[in-house]
Amino acid sequence: MEKTDMEVKKEEEEGAPAPSVERVFDGVRVPAWREQVTVRALVVSLGLSVMLSVIVMKLNLTTGIIPSLNVASGLLGFFFVKVWTKALERAGVLRVPFTRQENTVIQTCVVAAYGLAFSGGYGTYLFGMSSKIAVQATEANDSQNIKDPKLGWMIAFMFVVSFVGLFSLVPLRKIMIIDYKLIYPSGTATAYLINGFHTPQGENLAKKQVRTLGKFFSFSFLWGFFQWFYKSGDDCGFEAFPTLGLKAYENKFNFDFSAMYVGVGMICPHIVNASLLIGAILSWGIMWPLINNQKGNWYSADLPPNSLHGLQGYRVFIAVSIILGDGLYNFLKVLTKTVQAFVSDSQKIRLSTLPVSDEVQMAKPPIVSYDDDRRIEVFLKDQIPKWVAIGGYSIVSLVSIITLPHIFPPLKWYFILVAYAVAPVLAFCNAYGCGLTDWNMASTYGKLAIFVFGAWAGAHHGGVLAGLASCGVMMSIVATASDLMQDFKTGYLTLSSPRSMFVSQVIGTSMGCVVAPCVFWLFYKAFDDIGVPGSQYPAPYAIIYRNMAILGVDGFSSLPKHCLTLCYVFFALAILINLARDLSPKKVGQCIPIPMAMAIPFYIGAAFAIDMFIGTVILFVWQKMDRAKAAAFGPAVASGLICGDGIWSLPQAVLALAQVKPPICMKFLSRKMNDRVDAFINSAS
User: Which GO terms describe its molecular function (predicted)?
Assistant: First the structure.
């Protein structure tokens, strides 16, 4: 029931929290859940899903760093539906108002769809199964441990594993959102963004943000097109520009003029970008040149550059050790916080009088805000029956247990049964931890599955393929369950029905199951060097995940000399750095680098870290000059740079499939090499 002005005034005098968001929307009818899931919302969602899946796929196959694209999807969803409704209004067709609930449906649908471009493993476990990656690993590259990508089985795999997580935590939505009041920072931020769009002031700002995004989208797209003309071969084009000198370029230190990664740097926190640069300097500036000097001593001088028995092995396995150390520390940290918070919240709930039947009434706290009253009323209105969750989980699990062994023969049915038996517990831990910290630990649970199921299958029974496939099963369940709970939080804060959130998540997941494999297939067919180290699309995490599976099955026998010792050192160092971050005073801790971020350039190189550091410097200077404007338009500028360069990949792929090659090779030579080339040309003429 709505409060009177006297009650509101009394609450303010008693120190009730903050201005009400929902009072801004007083008098606005909350549409029924079927009215929230509209045709136009689904059409816009499909278009944005394709667009953002292309961007995520490109990021996946270049560095594996995926920033949040919530701002981009929220702004673009708002913009496209506004254009749609304006066009219908001018045509004289009855206009249905664009509501924040419909905006939330678009956001949920799009995030569910493009999320599968990441959790589907196209740059990690799934591509790690391929012969292209297996050849680089040199171990376990027999036929029973290899499965090359095919569009048919990839789509089938996505449909089989992607829906299980949606049903695993549905019965717990009230406990997680209302009783425990978990924050879910990303879901909350998205809700405030959407609520802001639908106020008069917010709508005007959103229009300006969309215009800004459009300008930088156009610049980034055209810049990508311009660069294409100069890249007709290897080491050609602006990517090969030796901005810091030829010697630095040989060690992968250069600014490669990537608008996308400058944009990513503007979105990622400053400490992440600084950590990447520190990792690049430590590895490519210090360690790899020193280890390279041991060629012929620590490893054979006759090995090819990409052999894991040579320098490449140190790059890959030391990066793996840092990632595992960081992942283990944060897993235990989040698990500890989750258990502590869960026990604390459970005690509070037992001490309070929550309703357990119609006769028992809940004793309300002294002050309950109007917003909470309104949101709880809407959130509890449209229930999702428990039989839907239990029946859905059981049926989809059964289908998976029957189907997956046919797709991956080493993955036995009882492996999948065990995975689905423990998955709801792990999904709950991940979703609860994500609600507290915003850390989605899905990839960590996936790595755990690699070691457990890979070792269970054994080296002689396709253990590597079984480990990678089980990683996909576990990651999909845990990631999807956490994403759904984030969406419930967003829906709770925008008065969107839980049913519309669940339905839009199911529809978005269905879109992603088709869109993500098709986008990957386009990249895979268009670019012959995909997955090759040093190429345009090296897919760095694919070899890392495959080597984790090999370690789980074969142990450490394949490592080059002293590599295992260095791995132990960096594993311990990752844990110690995390401890220092958490135990130091806040101002000191936030300046200590993040080990996970430091590890990424160990394998890939320094160029993208320099791009992202330039992005963070641009944003830092902008914040110093005008913090309010940087906060309002920084994400729009970054999203424009990311989306423009990302979407250029589509026409670039089409040109590659049509065998249209760039006309110019812009290459940079030393003076001595240039004299030799001139002499050769003169002698030939």
Answer: oligopeptide transmembrane transporter activity
What does the alpha-carbon distance between residue 106 and residue 73 come to, in Å, rounded to a whole number? 8
Residues 6+ apart with CB under 8 A from 246: 668, 670
- CA–CA dist 451, 447 (Å, integer): 7
For 665, the 3-state DSSP assignment is strand
**Secondary element (H or E) of residue 134:** helix 131-137
Q: State the Cα–Cα distance between residues 119 and 162, nearest whole angstrom.
A: 9
Q: Give CA–CA dist 637/72, Å, rounded.
A: 10
d(CA 186, CA 100): 17
pLDDT for the residue 355: 47
Rounded to whole angstroms, what are the CA distances from 607 to 277, 603, 646, 683? 9, 12, 18, 37
User: What is the pLDDT, as a whole number, of residue 371?
Assistant: 85
Region of poorest pLDDT, from 58-67, 428-437, 502-511: 428-437
Find the range with the poorest average confidence among 90-99, 219-228, 266-275, 420-429: 90-99
- Please tell me the pTM assigned to this model: 0.80
Alpha helices per DSSP H over 586-664: 586-589, 595-604, 607-625, 627-657
What secondary structure, in 3-state letters, does 542-595 show? HHHHHHHHHHHHHCCCCCCCCHHHHHHHHHHHHHHHHHHHHHCCHHHHCCCCCH
Q: What is the pLDDT of residue 350?
A: 61
Residue 351: how many other CB atoms lie within 10 Å: 7
Write out the two tokens for 429: 């831990």
Cα separation, 515 vs 508, whole angstroms: 10
Q: What token pair was written down for 239? A: 């990517």
Q: At what angle do helices 463-493 and 498-526 cross, to 10 degrees?
A: 140
Give me 388's structure tokens: 């839907």
Best CA proximity match to 24, nearest among 76, 100, 84, 108: 100
C-alpha span between 75 and 87 (Å, rounded):
18
pLDDT, tens digit (0-9, with 9 covering 90-100), for 334-366: 778 777 777 776 666 565 544 444 444 444 444
Distances (CA, A) of 28 to 108, 194, 200, 382, 391: 22, 15, 14, 19, 36
Under a CB-based contact definition with an 8 Å cutoff, are residues 176 and 432 in contact? yes
How far, in Å, CA of 608 to CA of 276, rounded?
Answer: 9
Spell out a b/e string for 384-417, using b for 16 or more CB atoms within 10 Å of the CB, else e: beeeebeebbeebbeebbebbbebbebbbeebbe
pLDDT band per the 50, 70, 90 thresholds, residue 448: confident
Helix orientation angle between 70-90 and 185-197, rounded to the nearest 10 degrees: 20
